[in-house]
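I'll show an entry:

:::
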Amino acid sequence: MGNKIEAHNLPQGVISHLFRDTAAGKPGLITRVGLGTFVDPRHGGGKINERTIEGPRRTAYPAPLHGSGVPFYKALQLDVAFLRGTTADPEGNITMEREALTLQALAVATASTTPVAW
């Protein structure tokens, strides 16, 4: 609300694939998902506020691929990932046997430069 951080709103499937592709070292994701919606670059590109701009640190903002109209979502730049686990050991291993959802925890941890267990 205070325009203090960059904020994006993207489809869950796009975010899921971006976590995986970022972890794999891919440059990004090409998909037709979001065409004609608020995620379409012609309709705001999923930006939530004015602070969210294009630039070198831009993450996940779709851009048309070579004029084709198909969005290319740049790989995410994840410096820190907060992961919830049931238990963790001093070596950084985390178990999630009692967590309701694990979702993309492995991809997020792999994509991040500094995963933090809590």
Observations:
- Strands lie at 28-30, 62-64, 71-74, 81-83, 87-88, 94-95, 115-117.
